[in-house]
Each structure stands twice: as structure tokens, then as C-alpha cells.
Amino acid sequence: MSHNYSSPLSAHLSSTAGDAQAVIDVAQRAADLKQLETGRVYAVAIGDRVHQIDLTGEQYRDAPKFKTGTTTVRDVDSFLSYFEKHADASTEVFADVERRSITAVLDAHEADGARWGKHRLLLELRHTSAWTAWTGMDNKLVPQKAFAEFIEDNLVDLVEPDSATMLELAESFEATTNAAFQSSQRLDNGQRRFSYVEEVNAKAGHKGDIVIPATLKLGLRPFEGSEPYAVVARFKYSLAKEELRLGFKIERPEDILTAAFADIRTLIDTGIPEYIAVLNGAPIRA
User: Fold this and answer.
1) Greatest extent of the chain over all pairs of C-alpha atoms, in Å
2) I need a labelling partner for 286 at 20 to 30 A (CA). Which of 77, 154, 178, 239 fits?
3) So what's the pLDDT on residue 17?
4) For the whole model, what pTM was predicted?
5) CA distance 70 to 119
């Protein structure tokens, strides 16, 4: 007699039973079987139909058959710690320069056989708050007061001029927000002098000068967990209608990020076994 095959019964049984043993008990009563083992697929005749019972799913196991999933870490030490625990001789590591991320495919294909490639470790770098703050102000011109407040909030990142000198300069900018700036002059050492006149009761009052350096030298960590890098920012200004606006332009910030990522890649390359190379590129999508 030919049998009609229905859709898998396992989905129905799973919905009416709370666990794997309940599924097995229902199938045993329906088919009068002595025992069903997890990890197998059964065909059960009920009336004139044959139903499939699939007991190979993860829910029927005491533990998953394979490691899967992607773990994301933020620094080199965390990457190496997880890598040491789960990697094997066939693990592959990829450094994606464009995305500035490093991925380890812990269950990559072996030389003589395929594996799932679904257990992965991802080093996803995040910028520090200091890097974000300075690059957020990069190439912008703002009023004196706003510029002074920014300098005061980020004094810790200044290397040259030192923080005390820049704090004094910031205070000078705040003290002259109501002054009329009349001229600027470039000095022999590259600094620039701004001359101003403070107005008192609508009359010209105290005259003075403010000298700003040509460049700022900063010490910034581009990524969380990275070392600090020397960053040079050139002062910029705009003097129109006696209003002074200030800013800076960071020199080649992309080069700094590229160098920082290259150093992180080197740390990982030296921290993993010599027989595993860090490849330039990205793995096949899982």
C-alpha cells in the first residue's frame, strides 16, 4: 500500500510537548515504538500517512553540536584571551583595513575538509571620547567663547603649548568677548598677534594684544585600548567686522588612524601562534 507523506510531525509535537522527552513519549504511543533516540530522524506510520519525526534539532541535545555565534570585543587583550580559549590550528584571522576591524574565524575550513565557519571573534574598535571631541571640532571656526570653553574642557590632551599656557590663553579669549578685533599680524616664529580695543560706554577703551601659537600638539588615543599618538593641529581664524572666530585643522587624521590600526594588527599578530597568519581582507560571510 502506498503511503501519503505529510509535513514533518516534529513541529506539531514540539508545540504540544514541553521538552524533548514529551515529544518522544507522544511518538512512542503513536507508533508503538520501544525507544526513540535523539539525534535521529524517524518515519512513523499513523493510519495511511507517514509522518517524519526529526529529533536532530539543538533543543534535543544536552549541548550544541557546534560552536556558533560572533563574540565582539573592544581591545587587543580581550581578543587574545578569547582566541586562546577557542582557536585551533585551522583558525583564520583577517584584518580589514577599511573597516578597521579584525575577525577570527575560529572554525574555518581545514586544508582537507570543510567546516561551518560560524564561530567568530570580532575586534571592533571604538574611538575614544577625546579623539571624537577633537575631530568633531576639526576644521570649524567658532566664536571666542565657544573656542575657549572647548580648550578648557580638553586641557588634558594638550602637550605643546602646555595646559597652563593654553588655559591662560582661553581665559584671555573669554575676557575679550566684547572687544573689537582690528588687525592680525603673523610673527617671525609662526605665531599670530591679534590687536583689539575694548569698548566702554560706546567709546574706545583699553587696547591689547592676544598671541596664539601656530600649532597645537596633542596626545590622543584614537581607539579604546590603543596607545596615545602625537597629533598636530594648525590654528585657523577668521577676522571679519571686528569679530574673531577661531578653530584648528588636524593634520592628516586618517594617517594617524591607519598607523594606530597597523600597530593593533601587529600586537595581535605577535600574540597568536606563529603558524596562524593575519590576512589582509575580510572572511566569507557566515
Assistant:
1) 112
2) 77
3) 40
4) 0.76
5) 6
